[in-house]
Amino acid sequence: MAKLQPQEGTGAWRPAGPGDLQELAGRITALLDAFGRCGADPDGGYTRYLYSGAWQEAQCAVSREMDAAGLSVYYDEAGNLFGRLEGSSAEEGAVLTGSHIDTVRCGGLYDGAAGIAAAVAAIELLHRRCGQPRRTLEAVSLCEEEGSRFPLTFWGSGSIAGRYAPDAPPEAADRSGVTLAEAMKAAGFGPGTHRSARRTDIGAFVELHIEQGAVLEQERLDLGVVLGIVGQRRWTFTLRGEANHAGTTPMRLRRDALAGACEMILEAERQACAYGEAMVATAGSVSAAPGLSNVIAGQAVFTLDVRHPDAETLQSFCDELYGIFEGIAASRELEFAGEQWMNVLPAPMDARLCEAVEAAAKGLGLRSRRMYSGAGHDAQVFSGSFPAAMLFVPSSKGLSHSPEEYTSPEQLARGAAALCNVLYTLAYEEEEKEKGDSQHENVR
After folding, report:
1. Of 275 and 90, the one with more pLDDT
2. In a 3-state reduction of DSSP, which class is residue 4?
3. SS3 of 383, please?
4. For residue 176, how many other CB atoms are within 10 A of its CB?
5. Average pLDDT over the chain, rounded to whole?
6. What is the pLDDT of residues 188-205, one digit of tens each?
7. Which residue, 84, 195, 200, 237, is most buried by CB atoms nearer than 10 A?
8. According to DSSP H, which parts of 193-335 are helical?
9. 239 forms bridges with which residues in the sheet?
10. Record's family (predicted)?
11. What angle do CA 420, 421, 425 make, to 5 degrees?
């Protein structure tokens, strides 16, 4: 098969020109159209919960497209779907690329699915242009990431990395009382049904994903090089004061739990702003009891989500803020309690792979920047087991988890072209370099 020619003056492989970007844009659009026929929700967008009928239809659609791309298709016991392009050498681990097929309720077309489409299109192009790779390439449609049906996340990547085991699934049930194990079995998956989900033969994972934010669009950039995924801490805080009459209780005599919660929330915002742009703190849920317009709140409950890419900074911020909250509660004579129910450490991406992504962007003439992901992704799960990297493409208006999310075919094609370059570096380049060295020796 004909091989792509290096870009003049760089010595690096890249798509030959605008025609390749147009081809990638068309192929990815067709793939997303095929995936988008599955799980269309009457309320708008797409709903593909793990192991649901819509989810099964989507995985079948991905399977057909992988097969059409010339890949060997198989499932694992958890329901992850792979399209494999066998390499000539079994000495190094496979290079895995893709994302998740499940969605939130009424989600968009691009979250997760764009990464799968880009993976299939990239490997298909590489196979046609460059033949068999040295290292095995695999496109993956991960079965679950969002946690929309069951109270757990990253079931797909977690099963591959060993966080979960399909033969001993967590005791989790959906809103209808169906357990994870029951749903898995009903969909045709589980122990003994397909290949083992646990993998120890993966050498690298590269995930293309929409940014789910507005930074790239606002800065008119083509690509984000993800240095890491932020750590997260989540709490539920409960304040107890004294419910009393709203008209007869002087302000100075009140023990208003809701007012205390409001002061804490505003203080969390002030402190996060003082720590710099990388720190975010969000009070996403607030409730008060008894919840009457003419009664001072005797109890208030609110959640707090804090994220930052550096573990020490995250810890320091949370410790300081907790102390401030205790001071506010004491000054208002309120009982105060905090329950932490999430503590996820930051997940740095592999430095060498990040450099490969940057080199790919530069070789293609793409405008890129380094950035951190404020949202969780499968790459963070894989990063604890083998080298992982992410590249972001722009999201229109920063919208995501919404029927309105959108990334243009041209933006997706530029990201897929960069993905091609990275995959070529990982799976082909060393073999090509060895051939070049051998030819050089012969000339001598």
Report:
1. 275
2. coil
3. coil
4. 7
5. 92
6. 999 999 999 999 999 999
7. 237
8. 215-218, 257-275, 311-331
9. 300, 336
10. Belongs to the peptidase M20 family.
11. 115
Residues of each domain in the chain carrying CATH 3.30.70.360: 231-344
Q: How is 409-430 classified by DSSP, letter by letter?
A: HHHHHHHHHHHHHHHHHHHTHH
pLDDT of amino acid 443: 32
Over pLDDT 70: what percentage of the chain?
A: 92
Cβ distance 198 to 165 under 8 Å?
yes
Measure the N-to-C terminal CA separation of the chain; round to a whole number of Å: 28
Residue 148 amino acid letter: S
What is the dotted CATH code of the domain comprising 231-344?
3.30.70.360
Q: Is 377 annotated as a binding residue?
A: no
Query: 163 exposed, middle or buried (CB, 10 Å; 0-12, 13-18, 19+)?
Result: middle
Q: For the segment 354-382, what is each residue's pLDDT rounded down to a tens digit?
A: 999 999 999 999 999 999 999 999 999 99
Per-residue tokens: 409: 């075919």
Do residues 224 and 392 make contact, with C-beta atoms less than 8 angstroms apart? yes
CATH class of 18-229+346-443: alpha beta
Residue 209, marked binder: yes
Is 307 marked as a binding-site residue? yes
Tell me which H or E stretch contains 231.
Answer: strand 231-240
Q: Is 234 annotated as a binding residue?
A: yes
Distance CA 144, CA 154 (A): 6
Q: Is 414 annotated as a binding residue?
A: no
